[in-house]
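Quarterly update, task 2.4: adenosine-5'-diphosphate-bound model.
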Amino acid sequence: MGGVFTVEFTAKQRELIRLFKRGELRRINILQGSVSAGKTWISLVLWALWVASRPPEYLYMMCGKSLRTLDRNCLLPLMVLVGERNFTFSLAAKEGRLFGRRIVLEGANDLRSEAKIRGVTLGGAYCDELSLFPRDFFVMLLSRLRVEGARLIATTNPDVPTHWLKTEYLDNDALCDTLLSVFFHIDDNTMLPADYVESLKREYTGVYYDRFIRGDWAVANGAVYKVFSDSPSAYNADKLPAFKYLNIGLDFGGNGSQHALAACGITHGCERLYALKTERIPAADMTPQVLYKRVYDFCEDILKRYGRISELYADSAEQTLIAGLRQELRPLGIAVKNSLKREINDRIRATTMLMAGGRFRLVSAECRSLIDAFRGAVWNDKIIGKEERLDDGTSDIDTLDAFEYSFERYIPQLIRNEN
Ligand SMILES: Nc1ncnc2c1ncn2[C@@H]1O[C@H](COP(=O)(O)OP(=O)(O)O)[C@@H](O)[C@H]1O
Ligand SMILES: [Mg+2]
C-alpha cells in the first residue's frame, strides 16, 4: 500500500496517518474545522487505506449531500489520488470499486436513500460534508454499520452550535470511546499559496468567518450585511464596465409587503456583480395590469440605458402573474423565467463574499431601496437550528429577494467552491 500514494502530507494530515497506522481510528471519525484545511484530501487517503485493509466481501458506502457534490468533492479526487486502476465508479449505477471492494454511492438529500439503506449491512461508510445531511439519514447509516470493526469517516464544516451533529455526537460525552473528532484549521493546510489563503480570509465575514475560517460552531446575530453597513459608500460604482449578463429580479409582494425590482450586471468571466437599479412598488390596491406596466417601464429604462436585458427572473410562487408578465414583456424581447430560489443562506453568503472580496458595486443613486435593505437586514435571534434572516416586515426582504433572484443562477461561477 505504501507505494500507492506519492503525495506529500501536511503536518496535521500526518497526525491522522499515524493514528490510522497505530489502529487508533474509532467507530465514528469526524474531521471538522475551517474550509480548505485539507480535511477532504486526507479523509480520502484514510478511507482508501482503511477500505483496502478490510474484508473484500463487505459492502461499503460513500455519501455526500447529493450525488453531484459527492462526485465533485470526493469521487474525482479519490480517482486522482489512488489511480483509475484502484478506483472506478459509475454515477448512473451509483456504484464504484475501490481496491476490489464494492462501494455504494448515495446522496443523503435524496428522500429515497434513507429507505434504501434501511435493509443493508455495511462494512464502512464515508460522508462528505456531514453537517449538510438530514439527521435521520445519518442515524440510519450508523445503525447499518453492523459488522465487526465497521467504521465511518466523515468531514464537516461547522454550523450553528445547536446543530444535531454537534449536540448529539461531537459534544456527547457518552460517545467518547466511539467517536474521534479531529480539528483542522485553514492554516494547517501548508500546501495552499499564501495569497489564496489571504483572499479566503478576507472574503468570509461575520458568522461565515467564525465558521469557515476559525472553524467555530457559531451563531449568526446582528446585522446580516455588516460588511456593507460598515462603509456603504465604499461600494459605489464610479465607472461601469461591460457586462456579460444583464438580468432583472422581481419579487411579488403579498399581504403587507411590496413588489420589488432589481437590475444587475455581471461582468465577463463572472468576476464582478453590479446592482444597477432597484425599485419598490406598493402592493396594496394594485391590479396585475398596473404592476405589469411598472415592470415594463423599469425594463424599458434599463434597455434604454444598457442596451439589452438577458433575462428576468420572477418569484416562482406566482405562476399566474408570471404568465401575464411574459405576454406583457414580449414586445421588449425579454425572456421571463422562474427564480431559481436557492437557499437564502447560500445567497447571503455569496453576496457578503462578493462584498468583502471587493467584487460587488452598486449605482448608489439608483439603488436607494437596496442600500436601505442591506442596512436593515438582521439575523433572527429567536431561531434555534438554522440561522435565518429576519423576515417580519421590519426590514425590506422583498428588495433583497429581487436582487438575489437577479444573480443567483450565477453563484457557482461568481464564487469558488460553491455548488
Ligand atoms: N497533502 C496535500 N497535497 C496537495 N494538496 C493538498 C493536500 N491537502 C490538501 N490539498 C489541497 O488543498 C485544497 C483544500 O483541501 P481540502 O481537503 O479540499 O480541504 P477541506 O476539505 O478542509 O475544505 C484542495 O485543493 C486540495 O487539493
Ligand atoms: Mg472538504
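Highlight for this quarter: The chain has two domains: 11-208, 226-414.
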